[in-house]
Amino acid sequence: QVQLVQSGSELKKPGASVKVSCKASGYTFTTYAMNWVRQAPGQGLEWMGWINTNTGNPTYAQGFTGRFVFSLDTSVSTAYLQISSLKAEDTAVYYCARLSYSTSWYYVDYWGQGTLVTVSS
Amino acid sequence: DIQMTQSPSSLSTSVGDRVTITCRASQSISSYLNWYQQKPGKAPKLLIYAASSLQSGVPSRFSGSGSGTDFTLTISSLQPEDFATYYCQQSYSNLWTFGQGTKVEIK
User: Fold this and answer.
1) Tens of pLDDT along A53-107?
2) Which of A47, A102, B51, B66 lies in disulfide reach of B33, CB 3.0 to 4.6 Å?
């Protein structure tokens, strides 16, 4: 069965960096792109962007350029989200989410369990 | 970016009620509209894709309709496990966006 398993919670100081991992299993990793979604405490879902797992080409939403980097290690079927120069407002749960499709329709069908990143001095 | 606006932001309702949630796009998105359900502390779950296609395993009391800019998620008879927050999301553009969410609460 398809599973996306993310790394554990992180507590970081402002200005530090963090790297969140998302290990996929149960399907061919390079067949489906991977999205990243942020959810700040008590807030809604915010789409951060996605990465083509075949080419490694990332697409970032407005507001997620510069400090946010999507990457892959296809040898271990894992996607990564790295955030640098962390700020308090980066405190959130970060989800990886598989981009699936049916004919020309695109949607997320599987989600990771989420990784809480807390930024505090 | 395409903006997605849901209404209402929250609603209080009872088991057995019919519930309708609306999502409006800032430009036409054809039928590239998905609906997700999220319960507290859990990852979202796909309910509807392509505006009206029911995801496998989702109960038939959930339905979606609409095209262009106006869309609706309907729960025909609300069950206790349906109290949650619901999000619409467009996949028309290469840059996806979510609505702000609609919280369905117990009256």
Assistant:
1) 999 999 999 999 999 999 999 999 999 999 999 999 999 999 999 999 888 889 9
2) B51
The pLDDT score that the predictor gives to residue A60 is 97
Helix (H, G, I), strand (E, B) or coil at A74: helix
Q: Is residue B53 within 8 angstroms of chain A, CB to CB?
A: yes
A44 at interface of B, judged by CB pairs closer than 8 A: yes
- Which segments in chain B show pLDDT lower than 50? none
Q: Do A111 and B44 touch (CB under 8 A)?
A: yes
Q: Which of A61, A97, A111 sits opposite B95 (nearest CB)?
A: A61
What is the model's pLDDT at position A66?
Answer: 94
Place of tokens 């990886």: A96
Residue A65 contacts B, CB cutoff 8 Å: no
